[in-house]
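Researcher: We plan to redesign the surface later, but first we want a full-length starting point. Tokens attached.
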């Protein structure tokens, strides 16, 4: 009989993966807010196990939307994209955890919701790239850049998820 322990150490499928703790800027876009998907989306990130470090409902000014998407300035859809982002309130969030940048992109799904897998947020709730419900940072550097753009100092909370909080004594 092979014990589970020796199976683990001998099988290449069980190698240890260590991931850097990162922060991602996640934003529920105006269509996600208008459609009442805020709770559903937050639930998916909580259920995955990431930690919420910042959260606010916010009406973005045009300049901020332009700056956020400045890398896409030359794209034909840029003016429409900026209009879309300022068309109503967004929910700004910072989620933290190991590998959260790539993991959040998986939870979110492909840019074009028609190509996004069912089970992803865009795959389950979207139809068009121009109304794709949610944003997630595409690199750790962009994550930090976007957090600095959308949150002021003092708006983020340092805390640790701790199951003992379920008990009063
Ligand atoms: P992602 O949000 O998946 O990182 P991009 O950075 O390429 O995707 O694009 C930023 C946003 O611009 C998308 O989420 C989407 O809202 C919008 N967008 C991208 N491509 C198109 C397109 N072809 N038509 C309309 N809007 C688009």
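Model: Full-length starting sequence:
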């Amino acid at each position: 009989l092979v014990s589970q322990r020796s199976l683990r150490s001998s099988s290449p499928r069980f190698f240890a993966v260590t991931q850097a703790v990162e922060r991602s800027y996640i934003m529920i876009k105006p269509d996600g807010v208008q459609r009442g998907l805020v709770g559903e989306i937050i639930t998916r990130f909580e259920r995955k196990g990431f930690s919420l470090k910042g959260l606010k409902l916010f009406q973005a000014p045009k300049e901020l939307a332009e700056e956020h998407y400045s890398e896409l300035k030359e794209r034909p859809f840029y003016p429409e994209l900026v209009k879309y982002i300022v068309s109503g309130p967004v929910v700004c969030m910072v989620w933290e955890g190991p590998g959260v940048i790539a993991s959040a992109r998986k939870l979110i799904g492909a840019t074009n919701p028609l190509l996004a897998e069912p089970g992803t947020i865009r795959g389950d709730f979207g139809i068009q790239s121009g109304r794709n419900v949610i944003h997630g940072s595409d690199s750790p550097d962009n994550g930090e850049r976007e957090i600095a753009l959308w949150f002021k100092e003092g708006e983020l909370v340092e805390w640790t998820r701790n199951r003992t909080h379920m008990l009063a004594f």
